[in-house]
UniProtKB/TrEMBL annotation:
The chain crosses the membrane at residues 45-67. Residues 24-85 form the Lipopolysaccharide assembly protein A domain. Its main location: membrane. The gene is lapA. Keywords: Cell inner membrane, Cell membrane, Coiled coil, Membrane, Transmembrane, Transmembrane helix. GO terms for cellular component: plasma membrane. Belongs to the LapA family. It is a single-pass membrane protein. This is Lipopolysaccharide assembly protein A. Involved in the assembly of lipopolysaccharide (LPS).
Amino acid sequence: MKYVLIFLLVGVVFIASVTFGAHNDQVVSFNYLVAQGQYRVSSLLTFLFGLGFILGWIICGLFYLRIRIALMRAERKIKRLEQQLTPAEQTTPMAQAPVTVVPKE
């Protein structure tokens, strides 16, 4: 369900940007770090929206990758500690008959 909502949201944004671009053929001057260019508003907005979308995915992907690596390390550490604990349990003598403690009156 979550993915359907995300897909619908992206679809609505895409349709809105196409509609906006169809009605805005005005040419604007865009100054960037090393040069200047004349671009249509719709083309410029499409490019910058796409660039922001890709950059956002890259940043979120890096955070996700960092979390996954930390999780794998933690799971590996847990597994190693469990393996260290298992031989210690095997070397202890078998438990004797259970002892019941009767409280004094």
